[in-house]
Amino acid sequence: MTMANRGNTDLAQLSEQERGRVAAGFNDLFKQHGMDGPRINGWWNHTTFDSLKGRTPTRAWLAGDANLVRDLVQRMVDASKEASEKVDGSLAIKEKVEALRKKYEQS
Description:
4 helices
C-alpha cells in the first residue's frame, strides 16, 4: 500500500467532507492490513502518540492537525512495508538454504 501523491496535500485546506473521505480511506487501509473495526476504533480513540503531541488521532484530527495524523499513518504504512520486505527476504533465504541442503543430501 502506498499513500503516494497524498503526502503533499495540506489536509487543512480540504473541506470537512473531503477530510472525512481521507479518514475513511485510512480506515480502509487499516482493514487491508488486517485491522478489524474495534481495533481501528481503538487506534483512533484510545491510543496516544508522541508525534501527535500525546493525543489520540481523533483529538489531533479535530484540533486541526490532520496532517500529523496523515504523516503518522504514512510512517505506519512504510514500517509495515519494510517489515514485510524483511520477512519476504528471510523466507527467500530460507528457501535457498533448504534447496541447497536438499541438493547436497542427494549428492
